[in-house]
Design a protein that fits this description.
With 339 residues, this protein is mainly alpha-helical. The protein contains 15 helices and 2 strands. Strands 1-2 form a two-stranded antiparallel sheet. Helix 3 crosses helix 13 and helix 4 packs antiparallel against helix 5. The protein starts with a helix and ends with a helix.
Length: 339
Amino acid sequence: MTASSNSRSPAGRYGPVIAILIAVLVPVLAKDFLVFQATQLMVYAIAIMGLNILVGINGQLSLGHGAFYALGAYTVAILMDGYGMPYGWALPVAALVTFAAGFAFGLPALRLEGIYLALATFTLAIALPQILKLSVLDPWTGGVQGISIAKPEAPAFLPLNADQWLYVLTLAITCLVYWLARNLIGSRTGRALTAVKDNALAARTMGINVALYKTLAFSVSACFTGIAGALSAIVVQYVSPDSFSFYLSVAILVGLVVGGVGWLPGAFLGAAFILFVPNIAEGVSKGLSGAVYGVLLIALIVLRPGGSAGFGAAWRGLLSRTGRTTRQISLSQEKETGS
């Protein structure tokens, strides 16, 4: 079944609307801690969507997206705490800063591919937390102590507490990022990014500026991940260098693999995995939580090599069979009526 027929099916038409309605009801029905966890889930989903643009759509491997996450978080923290900038202005500035950082890193990285590019991004993830601890940057970054941020209050016309407001704000930004990513992938630019991933030489032969599109993918990917980091800083109300270790970059990559490389909705399932599974593993055995986490991850990869995208394919297949059956029944009824 084609994508258009999927969109004409009831699930294709109303599924996203139902999901958004359920998400809107979460701050009303759930307790504050669950609201906080749901907010964190959306933050991680935005970061995974950003990495998916680079890895899944353009075919460049990054092991250092935690650095862009940290850059977005520190940009917001410095602007809000040091300069008193409202978060409504600090968030767009963080997006612009991380977009520029992604461009600045992606341009010289054009000479690198595969494992060499992964090694360069790995170096970035390792180096940035150490740079943030430098004493010369203490007046801005707070050194090893980090920066505390005041939690934004909801607008006076909304009957929401601070946690509920941050959830609603994060939900709105998540929907916007998802819409932007989906339209980017389906656009001419997205098709060019995919062509570069499939065969860079053939893409260059067809007149595609490979260097430009690779750099653009890095910039957009870094921007989305930076937005996630900025939201995380506001939600958690604190940033420090140790919060952005290499483990964060690995966690985002794991979320991408679990969600399905190249499958945008899988970002939410990947985010749920990296948010909840470590806690489940610790509940099974505190001493062996890492081993339990690893076993669960390996089991998922073995059972579903394509990640959650495999479940998406199965769901689309079910919709296809249901749609064909419905149409066949309708045609049979029309023939019987006509006869």
